[in-house]
Amino acid sequence: MKKFIQIVPRYNTSSGLLKKEDYMAISSNAMAEKRYLCEYVIPFRKLSKKDKLELKKNLRKDVSILTFGNWISYFSYLLKNKDAIFFANDRILESFIVGLIAKNSFFMSHQSNLPKSGLKRSIFLFFANRFSMLKVSNPFEKKELVRFGVPENKIKYIPLAIDSDFFSKRISKSKKSKLLFKYAIVEDEFIILFLATIRKFKNPYTVIDAIKILKEKGLKFRLLIVGKDKLADEGGPTLKEYAEEKNVSDKIIFAGNLHPEQIVEIFNISDLSVNSSFHEGQCLTVYESAAAGIPLCLPTIGSFTSVFSDSALFHNPSDYKKLAENIIKYAQDRHLMIKHTEINKNILKKIKYEQIKKMLVDFFTGRLQ
Fold first, then answer.
1. Shared domain check, 206 and 120
2. 128 within a domain of the structure (yes/no)
3. CA nearest 193: which of 288, 332, 329?
4. Does residue 192 share a domain with residue 156?
5. Are residues 277 and 320 in the same domain?
6. What is the spatial distance between Cα 4 and Cα 81, in angstroms, rounded to a whole number?
7. What is the CATH classification number for the domain harbouring 316?
């Protein structure tokens, strides 16, 4: 029986991800459906029963989960299975060495920008060129790799799957009214959504600074923040603390971490979605917002400009004045909002689960042109 082995980062989890959007699970699931013996390998991570149950949530029952306690056993495993199809993920040594051993090796970085340091970039490119093929999730990443010497014919652009049908669902008027009441939102307030696991690279302080400008201009709006705030873990002020410092707490709703069904409800009361990250791979939440028909204010980073160039308003990640300007532009131009959301819906039609699954199988089996 033919074997497919996927190497995934030790921090990998399916927590909060829909099955159709679990970007790690989808490759193994797709290959298992084609009768490949699939092994999902997380090197050097001790898995509790709870961990395995969490990982199995989105994996097929016939996909085995393996881990290894040391380099010797892991290296022996790779040598023993060198004739299998390997899919290695992330810029970690456990993934890089696969390209030196396996005959059919595929790699995905999950990051669009190459390392800034010349030495680190050289090391990354050395390993990247040892793989049979590279998978990228946006056109910008492909251009960057080609620019630094990776042959174009070794790179395939396959987006992460988005469950558009799920996130585009509409809720009833009564449920919407209850939701507005729950968050004390006045019906004609312009609702700006910031949906993310809040970390420094997401650059959330720029969003708050933009909100301060909107407040000073007297706009009728609220910022709705959804996601777990991890800024304190990274040594920065939380968004609540920063909002208080900027005197905009009255304009912000902190909804906390929500499950997907609740996020669908949030999409139904949101007018605009903002992101100001310094870097992203694909960023599921932006695509989910687009699927829900919400216009996008995005940073000028390649992973977004290469996809939404004609259907979003852009700002430099640190330019809070431009972000505020773009928010106001959308708020005052409903025609532009509708135009952009229609373009984005067409973009999303091309990256649904079944389509991406087929592309992945064709990619791993050499049939994707």
1. no
2. yes
3. 288
4. no
5. yes
6. 10
7. 3.40.50.2000
Let me know: does 89 contact 8? Beta carbons within 8 Å: yes
Shared domain for 176 and 137, answered yes or no, is no
Burial class (CB in 10 A: 0-12, 13-18, 19+), 200: middle
pLDDT in tens, the chain (369 residues): 799 999 998 877 666 789 999 999 999 999 999 999 999 999 998 888 888 888 889 999 999 999 999 999 999 999 999 999 999 999 999 999 999 999 999 999 998 888 888 899 999 999 999 999 999 999 999 999 999 999 999 999 999 999 999 999 999 999 999 999 999 998 789 999 999 999 999 999 999 999 999 999 999 999 999 999 999 999 999 999 999 999 999 999 999 999 999 999 999 999 999 999 999 989 999 999 999 999 999 999 999 999 999 999 999 999 999 999 999 999 999 999 999 999 999 999 889 899 999 999 999 998 765
Question: In which domain, by residue range, is 125 found?
Answer: 3-161+352-364
In a domain? residue 369: no
Q: How many domains would you assign to the chain?
A: 2
